[in-house]
Amino acid sequence: MRNYNIPIFIPELACPNQCVYCNQRRITGHDKPPEVGDIKDIVKAYLATMPDRDKHVELAFFGGNFTGLPKEIQHAYLSEASSLLEQGAINGIRLSTRPDYIDQEVLDLLVQHHVSSVELGAQSLDDDVLKLSERGHTAKDVETASQLIRNANIDLVLQMMTGLPGDTFEKTMYTASKIRELGATATRVYPALVIRGTHLEKMMQQGDYHPLSLEETIARCKELVRYFEKHNITILRLGLHPSEGLISGCEMTAGPFHPALKELVMTALWEDAFTTLSSDDNKQNQTKELTVTVAPAQLNAAIGHKASNRVVLEKFFKNVTFKTDTSLKGRTFHVHYS
Length: 338
What we know:
The protein is an alpha/beta fold. It is about 35% helix and about 20% strand. The chain has helices at about 25-30, 40-45, 70-85, 105-110, 125-130, 140-150, 170-180, 200-205, 215-230, 245-250, 260-275, 300-305, 310-315; strands at about 1-10, 55-60, 90-95, 115-125, 155-160, 185-190, 195, 235-240, 250-255, 290-295, 320-325, 335. Strand 3, helix 4 and strand 4 form a beta-alpha-beta unit. It is globular and about 70 Å long. The two termini are about 40 Å apart.
């Protein structure tokens, strides 16, 4: 069973303030939300690209502050979504919103329309970071909203960022630990990027903000992956899903953007796992052939981005071959020398 999201972007709608890093129109490439009547056609177009069987499809309202919309607009969007749910066209409804726009009245509406998952833009659970980022809410708001969502039996996802103003590695990991404590089943992890036209860009130009390097981001994200894996919290996304503007660089002025950030992080995790194989102690093995067996889902990451891990190992062995074994899980691996 493969999971799919059909995204409906509502850029910046109902957001009460502009966070220092945010320019949703540039990030998503969407200037305005679709009309309610367009949703059926959007879903139909997406479904045409998906397999007929073995799929779980959710309609996802992303990009803005959904529960801050006027109630009649929320109702209109959700009515259309729940109608598609009843018809069997989709299997669930999810939405993203701000933690300070969740209360019991809001949740009653979401339950009425069978919303299955709510993603809160927590970004950080450190109040100093939230204040410097001009989020307009506190860590306590995140805690209160999370409890209300869980009490309503709606799946809780907490989104986080690393590299925001005032953030440190320790604060990043503290946020991760709070995500676990608050009962989230999943998260999305985004590095802070400096998008053109944001207050963060001005802060950087004035010397008040220094974005993380790509190497620093990979190092932080490695530890986040280890932590969330250990506590069975699914990482739905690692790195921003970019618009063409971000890929070309015309919308971003600085920051650790890479279109394959997750691949780089997973490559780095495997590089760490292979440390004993690529140590100076193995230089005497340059006449030997090495076979590394890994889980099928880990094969590409084990070989590495642009085969970087294989290249490193080939400095210590005559030949390096990768194989798969369905009995292996995670980053467990076996080695054979010949």
